[in-house]
Amino acid sequence: MFKIRMLVSAIALTGSLSVMAAEALPTTAPAPADNPTTAEKVELGKMLYHDPRLSSTGTVSCASCHNTMLGGEDNRPNSMGVNGQTGGRSAPTVWNAAFNKVQFWDGRADSLEAQAAGPVTNPIEMGMKSWDDVVARLKTIEGYQAAFEKAFGKDAISKDNATKAIAAYERTLITPNSAYDKYVKGDKSAMNEQQVRGMNKAVELGCTSCHSGPAFNGPGMFQKFPMHPNGYFEAQYHFKKDKGLAEVTKKADDEHMFKVPTLRNVALTAPYFHNGSVPTLDKAVKLMAKLQLGKDLSDEDTADIVAFLNALTGEFPKQTMPTLPGTPGSTFN
Amino acid sequence: MFKIRMLVSAIALTGSLSVMAAEALPTTAPAPADNPTTAEKVELGKMLYHDPRLSSTGTVSCASCHNTMLGGEDNRPNSMGVNGQTGGRSAPTVWNAAFNKVQFWDGRADSLEAQAAGPVTNPIEMGMKSWDDVVARLKTIEGYQAAFEKAFGKDAISKDNATKAIAAYERTLITPNSAYDKYVKGDKSAMNEQQVRGMNKAVELGCTSCHSGPAFNGPGMFQKFPMHPNGYFEAQYHFKKDKGLAEVTKKADDEHMFKVPTLRNVALTAPYFHNGSVPTLDKAVKLMAKLQLGKDLSDEDTADIVAFLNALTGEFPKQTMPTLPGTPGSTFN
Questions:
Q1: Which residues between 84 and 123 in chain A have a beta carbon less than 8 angstroms from any beta carbon of chain B?
Q2: Closest CA of chain A from B36, distance in Å
Q3: What pLDDT is recorded for position B22?
Q4: Which long-range contacts (CB under 8 A, 24 or more apart) does A61-67 make?
Q5: Is A125 a residue of the active site?
Q6: Which chain A residues are Cβ-neighbours of B321 within 8 angstroms?
């Protein structure tokens, strides 16, 4: 699961000028060989993604924390799972997650399929005791029997197929045609002067050394956060409380290593950072410059970069709401 | 607010044969003179209805408990509000609520507009301290400034307009073309023999004395529940713990008085009754016969009536998901 991290290795953060590959966001996402995207899977996945009955209490769906009516998350510092419980991390956006090579803040899942399996049985997220229980519940719902059959064939309700369907749906959650995308495709009027200035400053400063690629997510890259050794702002924001990948691997080398998150639609996903401790985008930009690049950004430079980041807000595809099949009886307490 | 109840007065439950008015569900709902339905209001109302930022924690929207992807409620005995809190009542369906003359189980709201104002500031539901706080929060969101302006004119963000928009949206939540509707419109093949038998038994038994009208909700009618004086099943289901309308009015006459709920889509809204204590529809039918009409229903008669009730499941209109405008910064803890 952590191979990808090894492959990308630690790319040195020099802060020196780097060339930003100016690429528009692709409008489709590649699917793995064992889970080709089909309309039937996407439809089933959309149902499962929005179905709160995948949680122990019947109150929390994937969409509760990764809300596709909003910026793909919940605008909270940390999400609220079943029975009002909260964890320590801020929900990453689901929009364009298909372009991440690893998922979760600590990158512990190497595919959307693997990610989708996690929250359902996490006791403070969706709280199901086991996937066997999820499968058993889905099997009691006739409409799901039919939808799984359409997507995968007869008697196909399983953890594997449920997570495949959810991943197939998530691969459709792409937000193209941002001002930036139009700009790089040749429409030089799509970004205003301040946004162009902010883009150039982001490159000069070194932001795009890590936030690289069309999704500005350095796909597959992990970085230490915070990088700066002297612990600026730690008393205020408690960034180091969370050891990142090391929470999973228990290895010293992985301490405070986090997946590089996408900057697409970042203007819609306040509050910021892995623990959601920073309420606004201008503060987040200043902190990143100081903590990762050792630079003190002026208010003017910060405003320019924020203007550019707003140019990364894409077009949200119009979705129809799924009609979820009926529950035969009460299953929740 | 309680005038309507006085007007309809207590219609005697005789259990004798009553004529069922065979009417299909209307496809549009009337709007009050001061809130004519417009496309702009409906669009704004749909946004507000699905926006969890109308709750203190940013986790609970109207749709959380009255889920339009499901049968208009949450399939729970009682709903779960902010911070995992639960109350004592089961969420009524929002589908066809436009045809209720009063809202809430205790009928304390005489319009959809009045109902919409309630849960937002209920401490165990959406938990906002006041509507002033809601309005202040909405005003920070640029997209809402624009959407309210489109629907109501300049600087129009207010409690009154927010609840009007939500009510306008709810008036579009109608599920026509059930098997029963097709049947009463002349397609005698739309219901099978068992369903027709069940319909006739429901009339003979007296179910439709109260569950009358095209929405089977005896519009505006209150009834005592449970009616039977000797407290059958009370130890098991605790129906009498909730004093119904008397919880609001504190009048002895209003004790255990509840609004007659719709039977439309009842097959999708388990568990049943005001406290959600009865898990399945067949049990609910048997209990109603015993408690309200003093009759012991056979398994066969019960199965026939359940088959008929399934014929009241309508067609759910395809809805597009609203795109909710972005939050400028973190507002939740």
A1: 84-85
A2: 25
A3: 85
A4: A61/A126, A62/A94, A62/A116, A62/A119, A62/A166, A64/B52, A64/B59, A65/A91, A65/A119, A65/A125, A66/A91, A66/A92, A66/A93, A66/A94, A67/B52, A67/B324
A5: yes
A6: 68-69, 318-321
Superfamily of B39-170 according to CATH = Cytochrome c-like domain (1.10.760.10)
- Say what the pLDDT of residue B333 is: 60
Catalytic residue among A125, A142, A193, A234: A125
Domain boundaries, chain A: 3-25+178-310, 39-170
pLDDT interval class at A73 (50, 70, 90): very high
Say what the pLDDT of residue A5 is. Answer: 39
- Given this chain, do its domains A3-25+178-310 and A39-170 carry the same CATH topology? yes
Residues in A touching B267 (Cβ below 8 Å): 326
| Architecture of the domain whose range is A3-25+178-310 | Orthogonal Bundle (1.10)
Q: Is B279 on the interface with A (CB under 8 A)?
A: yes
The answer to whether residue A316 neighbours chain B at the CB level (below 8 Å) is yes
Structure token pair of residue B14: 């005789």
- Report the alpha-carbon distance of residue A211 to residue B87 in Å, rounded: 46
Architecture of domain B3-25+176-310: Orthogonal Bundle (1.10)
Q: Is A267 on the interface with B (CB under 8 A)?
A: yes
Q: What residues in chain B have per-residue pLDDT under 50?
A: 1-19
What pLDDT digit, counting tens, does each position of B244-277 carry?
999 999 999 999 999 999 999 999 999 999 999 9
Residue A211 contacts residue A289 (beta carbons within 8 Å): no
Distance CA(B21)–CA(B208), nearest Å, equals 9
Residues B46 and B246: their CA atoms lie apart, in Å, by: 33
**C-beta neighbour count of A240 within 10 angstroms:** 14
Using a CB-CB cut-off of 8 Å, the residues of chain A touching B50 are 69
CB atoms A58 and B51 under 8 Å? no
Distance from CA of A214 to the nearest CA of B (A): 22
- Per-residue pLDDT at B332: 74
Which of the four pLDDT bands, split at 50, 70 and 90, describes residue A228? confident
Q: Which two tokens stand for residue A144?
A: 């799901």
Question: How far apart, in whole angstroms, are the C-alpha atoms of residue B264 and residue B262?
Answer: 5
**Comparison of pLDDT for A319 and B20, the residue scoring more:** A319
pLDDT for residue A327: 85
User: Which residues of B are tagged catalytic?
Assistant: 125
State how far the Cα of B236 lies from the Cα of A120, in Å rounded to an integer.
32
